[in-house]
Amino acid sequence: MSPASFSLCRVLAAAFGLAGLAAAPALGAPDTDGAVAVFHEAKIICDRDGGALWGRSLCGPMLLVDPNDRAIAANQADGGGVLKASGSIFTGIFPESENVANTPTEWSGVRWTQILWPLPASEVKRHVLIAHELFHRIQPYLNLSRPEAGNQHLDTLEGRYLLQLEWRALAKALGAPTTAGRRAAIADALLFRRERYRLFPQAATEEGALEINEGIPEYTGVRLGIATALERRGYAVYDLSAFVQAPTFVRSFAYATGPAYGLLLDQADPAWRGKLGSGQRLDQLLSSALRLPAPAFVQVKARQAAYDDGRLRTREVKRDQERQSRLAALKARLVDGPVLMLPLHHSNYQFNPQTLQPLGEFGTVYPSLRLTADWGVLEVDDGGALLDKDMAAATVSAAGIDPSSLKGDGWRLILNKGWILAPGSRKGDLVAKQGGAVP
Length: 439
Known about the structure:
Strand order of the largest sheet: 9-10-13-14-7-18-17
Radius of gyration: 23 Å
Helix content: 40-55%
Number of helices: 11
Order of helices and strands: HHEEEEEEHHHHHHHHHEEEEEEEEEEEE
Number of domains: 3
Strand content: 15-25%
Largest sheet: 7 strands, mixed
């Protein structure tokens, strides 16, 4: 950020009591008292809302899962009788076949809100996380789930640069002391976004989908996890500044834009949530609510200067040069060299959305990943896995591996009974398939 923009975010965060969020330690081990406290906080959040925001209560089954030992604390019994009652909660061990992540989870006859233990020690950050994940469980019932695409343009020089200018304008709008100032800053944010859409024709559809899938849950987390409007705006500003540090924006950007647009829409059009089914994006809803004129693209350069003194552009140019070198190395490893191909039928995966690396027409690289499918479990902790653009197959490097070992550079594979590794279409390639003999 430019010094002015960084100071704005820092001042607002401090004013709203959020300055220490990024450094806050996590809560301790998942003991009974700690789990009970989290379930109690979730109930308070649900009861405070009463189903008013989305016409449906967020309350429901919850699993707290420790990723280290897979210990579970649940707020109710499971359908299969796996969990054991322990006071007012239920405990057990999450099976290895299930992914551990902050995500809705279908397990043992119940649809759960799964949250990783330990939760953040910061009460504000913890409550936002709880409300965000509770919303994910009911999201499909609200028809607010969309097919996702790559958003690879957000790892390009121009895509990243225009997104960060938009974030700075949104932060200015959230902190504006007057209606006129807020309106002007929103117009700038929409100008930068529309310029991005002009340069990348697919961007509007791709960004709009992820803002529904993750931006709306994060908005819900902020809106319901935080009690006052002033603190909500402060947290939204915090999100806009915190996600600047993400290695890539391709899947993390919506966590920043969702709360910002949602809270600005709350002011501009309190009925906006009921219009999401129309297919309009958040930026379209906000533009319509404020009756803003169509953007004048000739103003882009002039408005850039109001949010960047040149340092952001210089930093992004340097980053893009380094990115090109990384892409060449990844292509050599995961496309040109020998690979193991794994089909993605009935697959589930857990990953860090802030680390994804687009690889152009070939798909997206996941530096770390736990992937389950019909063939078994793949765990990647260093070398990276490439998921193709259609999400039909995953590949990892097969250079120098022994197929019988089921291990490679930075990955390990557990095959289900009846599956083997067989020769692929190129020399040195392997593919997971059913039946036959191990080569």
